[in-house]
UniProtKB/TrEMBL annotation:
SMART domains xref list: Fapy_DNA_glyco, H2TH
Metal-binding among keywords: yes
Family to which this protein belongs: Belongs to the FPG family.
Pfam families: Fapy_DNA_glyco, H2TH, zf-FPG_IleRS
Domain FPG-type: 236-270
InterPro entries recorded: FPG_cat, FPG_N, H2TH_FPG, Ribosomal_uS13-like_H2TH, Znf_DNA_glyclase/AP_lyase, Znf_FPG/IleRS
Species, as recorded: Litchfieldia salsa
Keyword Metal-binding: yes
Record protein name field: Formamidopyrimidine-DNA glycosylase
Necessary cofactors: Zn(2+)
């Protein structure tokens, strides 16, 4: 599932390609992927332009010049692709295709994900319970320490709780725990001050590095895209079971923790 770095990468690259371009055609192949009747959806967005794109956690908000917005959550298996011709597109089922004259933005794999149409007020209400943005300059070690003292859960599940922090999922939980040298089964409220500081720094470092590297989703966003998916080969532990830990050489372990596949080094994560 795309997480914060993947959605930030999509936001950056899409902003370069679709901002201020007029929507000339909308094709909806799966009505369950939207929240209103297809005719109303088309009527509301046709001939409109996307003014800006905003990310909150794992969501993208496309601001239309009408004041309405698309709220996108890709969920498990969801992807996007921008093509210039009908042939310039992955051989995958596309639930929604939005055309901008010569270009088209395809939403792929939206079996659980969706592209909903809302007012910005409605979106603020829907996303009201999201936790802080971990990369916000306003998100300080003092705020993080206050949050951890209220949580008795383990790192693996708590870091993925979107009401705790917005945007972290299965992959980056493991990467953050590795960076912080902490086992994913550690409880937040039992961490020492030094471990809490280390965890806070690791959250910022791992997410920023993953964004700079293009996230781990491998499908390019468009032909010639050299950024998307660049982090996949740079993962330290995620999906690396049976390989040697780059810090200590011990084999990386894969386990199921709270029904989540989890990767870690049993030697240098304490």
């Amino acid at each position: 599932m795309p997480e914060l770095p993947e959605m930030e990468t999509y936001k950056k690259l899409l902003s370069e390609r679709v901002i201020n371009k007029q929507i000339t055609k909308v094709l909806i192949n799966r009505e369950k992927s939207i929240n209103v009747e297809p005719s109303l959806f088309t009527q509301e967005v046709l001939n409109r332009k996307i003014n800006s794109i905003e990310r909150r956690g794992k969501y993208l908000i496309f601001h239309l010049d009408s004041g309405k917005c698309f709220l996108l959550h890709l969920m498990l298996g969801g992807l996007m692709y921008v093509g210039k011709t009908e042939d310039d597109s992955p051989a995958r089922t596309k639930q929604i295709i939005i055309h901008f004259n010569e270009e088209h933005l395809s939403f792929i794999g939206l079996r659980l994900g969706y592209l909903h149409l809302h007012s910005y007020k409605e979106i603020n209400e829907l996303l009201d319970k999201l936790g802080p943005n971990p990369l916000s300059p306003q998100f300080t070690i003092n705020e993080f320490t206050g949050l951890t003292r209220q949580r008795r859960g383990i790192l693996k599940t708590t870091l993925q709780n979107q009401a705790f922090l917005a945007g972290i999922g299965n992959c980056y939980t493991d990467e953050i725990c590795f960076e912080a040298r902490l086992l994913p089964t550690r409880k937040l409220n039992e961490l020492s001050d030094e471990e809490t500081n280390r965890l806070f720094s690791s959250i910022k470092n791992v997410l920023n590095f993953a964004i700079d590297s293009g996230g781990y989703i491998e499908l390019p966003l468009f032909t010639g895209d050299q950024l998307t998916g660049g982090y996949n080969s740079l993962c330290k532990v995620y999906d690396r079971n049976g390989e040697n830990c780059e810090r200590c050489g011990v084999l990386i372990i894969k386990e199921s923790i709270s029904s989540k596949k989890t990767y870690y080094c049993s030697n240098c994560q304490k």
